[in-house]
Amino acid sequence: MKIGIPRALFYYQYYPFWKTFFESLDQKIVLSSPTNKDLLKKGLELCVDDACLPVKIFHGHVANLIGKVDTIFIPRIISIEPKEYICPKFLGLPDMIKNSIPDLPDIIDVDLNLYKSKIMFFRHFIKLGEILNKNKKQILIAFNKAQRVQQRFEYQLIKEKIVPQDILSETYKISQNEIFSYNPSKLKVLLLGHHYNIYDDFISMNLIMKLRKKNVTFITSEMVTNKIIVEGTKNLSKDMFWTLGKKAIGTAYYYLERKKVDGIIHVASFGCGPDSLVGEILEKRTRRDFHIPFLFLNLDEHSGEAGFNTRLEAFLDVLEGRKYFEDNIPTYG
Amino acid sequence: MRITFPHMGNICIPLRSLFENMGLEVISPPVCTKRTLELGVAHSPEFACLPLKINIGNFIEALEKGADTIIMAGGIGPCRFGYYGEVQKEILKDLGFDFEMIILEPPQGHFFKLLQKIKLITNHNTIKDIVSAVRIAWKKALLLDKLDLESSKIRPIEKIRGQTDKIYRDILLRINDINDKDEIDDLETIISDTLYDIPTNGQTPLKIGIVGEIYTVLEPFVNLNIEKQLGELGVEVSRNIYITDWVQENLLPSLLKPDKHKDILRLAQPYIKCFVGGHGQETVAQIINFANKGFDGVIHLLPFTCMPEIVAKSAIPRVSQKHSIPVMTVILDEHSAETGFKTRLEAFIDMIYHKKEVGDFAKMHSGN
After folding, report:
1. What average pLDDT is seen over chain A?
2. Would you say residue A61 has pLDDT above 80?
3. Burial A192-227 (b: 16+ CB within 10 A, else e)
4. Where does CATH 3.40.50 sit in chain A?
5. B274·A78 Cβ contact <8 A
6. pTM for the model
7. Which fold would CATH assign to domain A162-327?
8. Of residues B108 and B42, more confidently modeled
């Protein structure tokens, strides 16, 4: 059976797992094409107009798969950590797709709900295997294999400080002479935001590449261990119930408290519910307690690349200036 | 300790009585005005939803009047409301106010913490006092719901415009003032009697249901007085949620929840399979419920960027077609204006009248 996987949203977190699991069960995987202008246009046509950009683009990816596959895999990702959620739109994502897109093939929309316990992760895949008519033994073997691949993937991100596309995409390379070499101060920034926004090069307008070309080191929430995130969120007066928000805040506080970064870039999509509050808490604390420059990039389908570049360059200039003056404490006055 | 809380429709009346009967000093925030909104919008995050902004306005105005303790509800997500308190605390702290904020979280393993907080509020009252305070507050809430329910039936058919509203305001004041159990019981009959004494024109009005996010449905300042406006256009209005329903659904443990609630939710299954936070699933279920009850149309209210209601909105075109009921979605934010809103309401109602005349839904389109 040909299973279609949209190259959007949790693709950036779980694709290695999904791919290994399905392929070990003799299924063929078809990915939608990388996000592009036509795909976005299709998504805008289909999706309810108040949704955020990544959800609209997801609709485009699903439409892109129609006709190419027997079934599309859209798990209902309710919760991936105990006592936490992703966002209401993820809870209703398969419903939104079914309500908005006509002529859909079959959809596999098994619940992934770890709200009560992490054991449910295993049960989720057992159920998936059962839908594909496989026996327990086959499923178990596939699950173990997939888990190993997933762990290696996550370990690699942390160890080598690379982004998911470095592993997921073969063509994603940057040649040495493309790097803008004059950057002696070697800036280090925190790049915060949901993984499906910052790693999708169409949504984030090649932000990762742009930073690399400028020789700026960056840290994302996917490059840090869980321990660091727990350490960073220790001082919150209320546990955050959005997993992605918690990761961003944890990473930020950990590095801010240790004064290890020169600036913060926060990428959010227009109308993102959790980020409207997470961003506010982050920005307020950063300004009040740490005095570190903070760039808030808000993305939607109308964002223009030229304005985006100008803001990014100006921000990096500010960081560089600060670094320069820090290093050269004037001897006068 | 001078206590304050955010506004949500008439909820300030039972809350005030509850705290005062426990011997606490209460400073209700002033009624929401343009200033409340402006204060809230100026100090809140740009993309936060409207209720958070109006809460901030309420808090600032109450703190200015001398309150020093804010009582706020918490939550466990995924809707943003659960994190309101934390963000509001940060914002008010940044503005330099000196206050205490008590956030009542639903008991999720931290039962002891909740008890501690309740004890802090209840001010060492005996259990008997607390029970009687709660009982009076509850009775007041029931009265308010009855008043809303019955006045919305009379308002569209009153002979002289404005009579119902006059009586409505009078009774509201009386509910606020009385504090005796027997008097409350008397008032219940008074409400029915005075409202039924209003001369009516004997027509059968259109029936429209209002569904959506709870704050926008309950707070007339935010929904631009939709119940009154529709009433004046000759429409009988029914809401999907009243204060007492909300208390029963949210504050009672699931064992004691009314069964009716679960039955209605089942209606939403084909469109939204599981809980999506807030009232997203309820919205869809209630639209179908209103359609089954023979209503002429439904108006769906939500604040801009409300996540659960966006999921619900994606289902509405299908629901509307399948159950042939016109639905109009109205998104509210700080830029909503009464005139434009009124035009949309009138157009929607004209369309329903037309549909009734033509009697063929296929020729008309849903309100979206």
Report:
1. 89
2. yes
3. bbbbbbbbbbebbbebbbbbbebebebbbbbbbeee
4. 2-158, 162-327
5. yes
6. 0.90
7. Rossmann fold (3.40.50)
8. B42
